[in-house]
């Protein structure tokens, strides 16, 4: 009988009897003298210790320390409930193997942040932002607590319910809505609006109209409210999608929605039944709710010119009186927004695009042949859940089709749309994808890059540009200036922001404050940054609306299954000796140029080429890139490779069966439209950047063969043993590990040593290589400086260096790596001290990461 069970026995609701008999096993485990007089009342009151009269007999609790949560009794039917919530820090542990895990996961993704989702046990955490996001997609405080309680094995701790209440009390209660071209502050809680109207700044921005719709000055402190009896609706459909379903008879044609076999149907029903039994969601009740609708109260604020964030003076066609009007308008709506933030009632922004009659409609729809996938639909339903467009961020894995999600959103809103991407290559890809998936006419879609400055014809259209073009503060060319005036002088129905995690916050701020857009959607695969800038995104764009699970999409064949491995290459004694003596830059080159790594790279290329794979080798260091590629006789592309040469190499890689491997520098990360590959090898990478690692993995996730029986894509990182590179490698992998990828550590590529074709086999060759490395000049030692700033990597490194916590690995062996025979490998395991945990988790227990509430709570404890 475990200690938890003891507590359960002693604290279950039915059995509040303190006269509990301890059986022999229990006596033994507690080391309690049989005749000892036990006071177990402490178990019921949340104390962790079993107190024995006159002495503290606590031979187990010390093992759990602060983590002894036995004061939370297990529910009787805990086996069918899949989660547990830590009262200390709001982390939620979910049994990934539970029959209702999928449904529970949907709920958890809506209310919390996924921390780690490997195969069997998932970890989430409740944060103020995640709860803000939950409220913004329409979840109510009590519903969140109720469903958590039903899913939880133990009663939801009081600290957590308090936290949820505190975070959701004011969030999401107030919306800023553009309706019929007027701005309204809207809420279904009249008392909240009354409270806001008592605020002088807010009430001074209010507009009150008479019966003839003429503005009369708002009386100071007035609390008269407009009552809008029309339900804001809980129209759960996405307009664009509904249309498409009608056109095509639903989404069933998608390969995931193949008719289910009888067995599968029965299983699904069983799961739904079980979920229903646990969560007790009564569908009929839900429908009742929908029909009933809710009463929405609102008051109008000054915004007749429908002008929010942009600088009213920039526009060149505005007359002086208009400009003054705009300035006043802007000031009041900005003031009100800011004021609401200041008093902890942040306004959610929603765009009632169907009632916007000022901005011209854009003729755009999805093509009848376009079928969006279920997870794409799900993510969009979070954006358009109530028939308006909510601003926020959608997180989908690389290669999962974020572009189509953005395009579908644009087709739903049907207003002018500005798309911002990270590079001019992406700009061209977006344009091509708009033309491929939607009915947009070519003359309605324009691009704005350094090479091309187009405007669309007519009153509405799409412009695709880069962040740097729009946020550029330096002097612009005449054409660029005119184009900026065009962008800034008009109102955009929709601002689509690609790769939002990459953009520095100040650039972002410039963009969102100079472009007037009603709805903003950020897209990303990796919402990871180790600076505070992720938090900025919440308020600059909106909350995270949806985050998909990588493993789920891989299991359903939407992205490829990937085998990840880290190959440990021993340094030769000569290289290692130099490594220990040299400065840090040269050290980097030494561990990248290690002859054993060279050989491993060659061996893997040979191995995968014979399997019919297409291989990309990544090296951030250009010196190494060129040396490797030349020595192994493979084509390579780096920043200095001309456009024609790039195209020639990429075309060959794609279509020529004789060219199966290419070497790429950092340019491959963002600035090249890469053809499909099935195997990726990294020989040098950007320090500890988790984002770069995930992005590179993304290159092979879209492999077309992904649905072939037993198909795997391969992702290798080659690291030189006992060097700093191992440390960075571990750090880089953390994001992917948290998505459920298992990195195998291969210490020995069997058969490699006996391969007579390997390069640098002789001592002399190795010494010549070393000589070359030692003679390399300063420029050769640097990674290629290219493309967007990778602040994730840089900041990671700083923090990592400061912390200096080494990763631990434990050894196991196995014969094959998913078809790769003759390889011996090790596997990572998390050690008990949590040393191999992510930064987030690693610090989870420290007060540093605690929300103010938890700090308070912990302090009290
Ligand atoms: N619903 C769909 N039906 C068919 N193909 C799709 C669908 N959604 C996406 N794809 C295809 O999947 C591939 C990946 O899409 P896309 O480039 O938009 O992914 P992404 O999420 O933007 O990836 P990355 O983050 O790497 O840029 C593309 O070839 C795209 O055409």
From TrEMBL:
<comment type="subunit">
    <text>Component of the 7-subunit TFIIH core complex composed of XPB/SSL2, XPD/RAD3, SSL1, TFB1, TFB2, TFB4 and TFB5, which is active in NER. The core complex associates with the 3-subunit CTD-kinase module TFIIK composed of CCL1, KIN28 and TFB3 to form the 10-subunit holoenzyme (holo-TFIIH) active in transcription.</text>
</comment>
<dbReference type="GO" id="GO:0006289">
    <property type="term" value="P:nucleotide-excision repair"/>
</dbReference>
<feature type="region of interest" description="Disordered">
    <location>
        <begin position="234"/>
        <end position="259"/>
    </location>
</feature>
<feature type="domain" description="Helicase ATP-binding">
    <location>
        <begin position="383"/>
        <end position="545"/>
    </location>
</feature>
<keyword id="KW-0804">Transcription</keyword>
<feature type="compositionally biased region" description="Acidic residues">
    <location>
        <begin position="10"/>
        <end position="22"/>
    </location>
</feature>
<dbReference type="Pfam" id="PF04851">
    <property type="entry name" value="ResIII"/>
</dbReference>
<dbReference type="GO" id="GO:0005524">
    <property type="term" value="F:ATP binding"/>
</dbReference>
<protein>
    <recommendedName>
        <fullName>DNA 3'-5' helicase</fullName>
        <ecNumber>5.6.2.4</ecNumber>
    </recommendedName>
</protein>
<keyword id="KW-0234">DNA repair</keyword>
<keyword id="KW-0539">Nucleus</keyword>
<dbReference type="InterPro" id="IPR032438">
    <property type="entry name" value="ERCC3_RAD25_C"/>
</dbReference>
<dbReference type="InterPro" id="IPR006935">
    <property type="entry name" value="Helicase/UvrB_N"/>
</dbReference>
<dbReference type="InterPro" id="IPR001650">
    <property type="entry name" value="Helicase_C-like"/>
</dbReference>
<dbReference type="GO" id="GO:0006367">
    <property type="term" value="P:transcription initiation at RNA polymerase II promoter"/>
</dbReference>
<dbReference type="InterPro" id="IPR027417">
    <property type="entry name" value="P-loop_NTPase"/>
</dbReference>
<dbReference type="InterPro" id="IPR050615">
    <property type="entry name" value="ATP-dep_DNA_Helicase"/>
</dbReference>
<dbReference type="GO" id="GO:0000112">
    <property type="term" value="C:nucleotide-excision repair factor 3 complex"/>
</dbReference>
<dbReference type="GO" id="GO:0097550">
    <property type="term" value="C:transcription preinitiation complex"/>
</dbReference>
<keyword id="KW-0413">Isomerase</keyword>
<dbReference type="GO" id="GO:0043138">
    <property type="term" value="F:3'-5' DNA helicase activity"/>
</dbReference>
<dbReference type="GO" id="GO:0016787">
    <property type="term" value="F:hydrolase activity"/>
</dbReference>
<keyword id="KW-0347">Helicase</keyword>
<keyword id="KW-0378">Hydrolase</keyword>
<keyword id="KW-0238">DNA-binding</keyword>
<dbReference type="Pfam" id="PF16203">
    <property type="entry name" value="ERCC3_RAD25_C"/>
</dbReference>
<dbReference type="InterPro" id="IPR001161">
    <property type="entry name" value="XPB/Ssl2"/>
</dbReference>
<dbReference type="InterPro" id="IPR032830">
    <property type="entry name" value="XPB/Ssl2_N"/>
</dbReference>
<keyword id="KW-0067">ATP-binding</keyword>
<keyword id="KW-0805">Transcription regulation</keyword>
<dbReference type="Pfam" id="PF13625">
    <property type="entry name" value="Helicase_C_3"/>
</dbReference>
<keyword id="KW-0547">Nucleotide-binding</keyword>
<dbReference type="InterPro" id="IPR014001">
    <property type="entry name" value="Helicase_ATP-bd"/>
</dbReference>
<comment type="function">
    <text>ATP-dependent 3'-5' DNA helicase/translocase; binds dsDNA rather than ssDNA, unzipping it in a translocase rather than classical helicase activity. Component of the general transcription and DNA repair factor IIH (TFIIH) core complex. When complexed to CDK-activating kinase (CAK), involved in RNA transcription by RNA polymerase II. Also involved in transcription-coupled nucleotide excision repair (NER) of damaged DNA. In NER, TFIIH acts by opening DNA around the lesion to allow the excision of the damaged oligonucleotide and its replacement by a new DNA fragment.</text>
</comment>
<comment type="similarity">
    <text>Belongs to the helicase family. RAD25/XPB subfamily.</text>
</comment>
<dbReference type="GO" id="GO:0005675">
    <property type="term" value="C:transcription factor TFIIH holo complex"/>
</dbReference>
<keyword id="KW-0227">DNA damage</keyword>
<feature type="region of interest" description="Disordered">
    <location>
        <begin position="1"/>
        <end position="22"/>
    </location>
</feature>
<feature type="domain" description="Helicase C-terminal">
    <location>
        <begin position="599"/>
        <end position="757"/>
    </location>
</feature>
<dbReference type="GO" id="GO:0003677">
    <property type="term" value="F:DNA binding"/>
</dbReference>
